[in-house]
Amino acid sequence: MLVRLMEQKRENWGSKTGFILAAAGSAIGLGNIWKFPYIAGENGGASFIIVYLICIAIIGLPVLIAEILIGRTTQRDPVGAFYKLSNSKFWASVGGMGIVGGFLILSFYAVIAGWAVGYIVEAVLGNFNSFTEATSASDHFNNLVGNVYWILGYFTFFMIITMVIVYAGIQKGIERGSKIMMPVLFLLLIILMIRGVTLEGAAAGMDFLWNPDWSKINAQSVLIALGHAFFTLSLGMGAMLTYGSYMSKKDSVPNSALQIVVLDTVIALIAGVAIFTSVFAVGLDPAAGPGLIFHTLPSVFIKMPGGYIFAILFFVLLTIAALTSSISLLQVVVSYFVDERKWKRHTAVTVLAGIIFLLGVPSALSYNILSDFKFFGMNFFDIVDFTASNVILPLGGMLIAIFVGWVWGFDKVIINVKEGAEKLFDEHPIVLTFWKIFLKFFAPILIFLVLLQSIGILDKIAALF
After folding, report:
1. pLDDT digits (tens, 9 = 90+) for 369-407
2. Considering 75, 108, 348, 431, which has the largest number of Cβ atoms within 10 A of its Cβ?
3. Is 171 helix (H, G, I), strand (E, B) or coil?
4. DSSP for 50-78?
5. Which of 256, 241, 253 minimizes the C-alpha distance to 401?
6. Angle, nearest 10°, between helix axes 61-74 and 78-86?
7. Are 58 and 275 in contact (CB under 8 A)?
8. pLDDT band at 286 (very low <50, low <70, confident <90, very high)
9. For 329, which DSSP code?
10. Would you state the pLDDT for residue 291?
C-alpha cells in the first residue's frame, strides 16, 4: 500500500509535448551546435552526414526506444528501474553507472556551458571587434579561460540556473522551461541559418554540406559517425530513462523516440548550415576542429554584416542548448535520491548541485591554476571527460541494448512497447521486427566498437597491421 501511494505521488509530465521538448532538449546540446559541425567539417561534410543519418537509424533510434521504454515501464530512476525488472544487483549497478555518469558529465559540461555564457557578455561588450584573424580569437579565448575569476564565475552562474529549473520540479521547472527554451532555440537557429545562406560566398558552404565527397569517408569516419549518433541522443547516462519514467503509459514510446531523433537531427543540420555558410563566406577553414566555435566563429562574425547582433544570438543559442541538456543531467542524479533514498526534491537538488559544483571546480581550474597537473598526459578536465564520455556512456548504452534485447525477456518487452503504440504495430508489424533485430544484434556490436574506438583500443589494433 505504501509503495502504491508513493508511486501515485510521483511527478509526471503535464503533456506529451512537454516530454518531447524536454527529451529533445536533453539530446540537443553542445554536441549539436558545437561538435557536429566541426566533426562534419573534418570528415568531408555531406558524405559524413549521410553516414551519420544511417548510424542514427541503426543504433540511435533503437537504443533510444529501449532506454525510454525501461523508464516508462518501471516509473523509476535508473537504479530502481533495472532492479525492478531484473531483481539483480549487477543490473542495478548498470543504472548506478548512469548516475555516476550524470555527476561527472555535468561537472565538466557546466564549465563549457559557462564559456558560452561568458561569450554572450564578450559579444555584447564588442570584444570580438578587435580580432583581425582567427589566431586573435584563439588568443582571446586562452586568456579568458586562464582567468580564474572569469571561468569560475560563469561556471557558478550556469550551475545556479540549472539548479533553479530542476528545483522547481518536472512540470513547473523542466517542462515549463523546455517549452520556452526549445522554441526560442529553434527560432534563433533559423535566424542564424537565414543570415548564413544570404551571405555572399555562402553557396560554397552549402555545396560542402550537401554534395557528398566519398573519398573523404574511411573506417575512422564511420566510427566517428557511429559514436556521434550514440552520444548526441544522450544515451547510456540514464537521462532518457529518467525522462521516460515520468511518461504516461498512454503515449507511444516509438513515436516519441522518433520525434526526438528527428528534432535532434534537424537542429544539428540547421546548425551545420548556419555555421558553414558563415565560415565559407569569410574564407575560413571548415575543418577547424574543436576550436571552431570559440576560436574561429568570433572572427567570422566580425567579418559579416550585422555580425555584432548575430554573435550575441549565436552564444545565447549555445547557452540555451547547453541548459536544456544540463537540467536532464541533474535530474538523473536527483531522481535516484528522490526515488531510492527518499530525499525531498528540494533537498536533493540543492545538495547534489552543490556536490557537482565542487567536483567541477578542478575541471574549471584545469586551464589555469591546475594546468600543470597531468595524469597520463591529461589534465583533470580531460580525465573526467574521458572517464564519463569514453567509458561510462558507451558501456552503459551497450548494456542497455543487451538488457532489453536479451535479459528482460522479449515477450515482456513486446507487451510494454506496444502499450500506447498498438496502431503502429498493428498496421506495420515489420517495424517491431526491425527494432528487435537492430537492438539485439546491431546495436550491441556497434556500440562495442564505439567503446573500443573511444578508449583508443581500435587505433592500437590498427597500428599492428
Report:
1. 988 888 888 899 999 988 988 899 999 999 999 999 999
2. 108
3. helix
4. HHHHHHIIIIIHHHHHHHHHHHHHH-S-H
5. 241
6. 80
7. no
8. low
9. H
10. 65
Angle made by CA atoms 221, 318, 106, in degrees to the nearest 5: 80
375 phi, psi to nearest 5 deg: -135, 115
Helices marked H in 168-304: 176-197, 202-210, 219-231, 239-244, 253-281, 297-301
CATH of segment(s) 15-459: 1.20.1740
Whose grid coordinates read 575543418?
287
pLDDT-above-70 percentage for the chain:
95
What is the Cα–Cα distance from 155 to 173, expressed in whole angstroms?
A: 21
What residue type is assigned to position 278 of the chain?
S
pLDDT band for position 5 (cuts 50, 70, 90): very low
**Helices 46-55 and 253-281: crossing angle, nearest 10°?**
170
Are 409 and 253 in contact, with CB atoms under 8 Å apart?
no
Q: What is the pLDDT of residues 177-235, one digit of tens each?
A: 999 999 999 999 999 899 888 888 889 888 888 888 888 888 888 888 888 888 889 89
DSSP 374-428: -BTTB-HHHHHHIIIIIIIHHHHHHHHHHIIIIIS-HHHHHHHHHTT-HHHHHH-
- Residue ranges per domain, the chain? 15-459
- Given this model, what pLDDT does residue 3 score? 45
Q: Is 157 exposed, middle or buried (0-12, 13-18, 19+ CB in 10 A)?
A: middle
Helices (H) and strands (E) in the chain, counts: 25, 0
Measured at the CA of 285, the angle between CA 284 and CA 286, to 5 degrees, comes to: 115
Q: Which three cell numbers stand for residue 70?
A: 525501461
What torsion do the CA atoms of 70, 76, 77, 79 make, to the nearest 10 degrees?
-80
If you average pLDDT over residues 321-347, what whole number do you get? 94
- Whether the CB-CB separation of 56 and 296 falls below 8 Å is answered with no
pLDDT of residue 8: 45
Kindly report, residue by residue over 264-282, the tens digit of the pLDDT.
999 989 988 888 888 888 7
pTM, to two decimals: 0.92
State how far the Cα of 269 lies from the Cα of 267, in Å rounded to an integer: 5
Between the alpha carbon of residue 274 and those of residues 115, 178, 298, 301, the distances in Å are 20, 23, 14, 12
Going by C-beta distance under 8 Å and a sequence separation of 6 or more, which residues neighbour residue 338? 77, 344, 345, 348
Q: What is the structure's pLDDT at 40?
A: 84
Does residue 375 contact residue 122 with C-beta atoms inside 8 Å?
no
DSSP state at residue 369: T
Asked if 264 and 233 touch (Cβ cutoff 8 Å), the reply is yes
Rounded to an integer, what distance in angstroms lies between the CA atom of residue 297 and that of residue 176? 31
Calculate mean pLDDT across residues 64-89.
Answer: 96
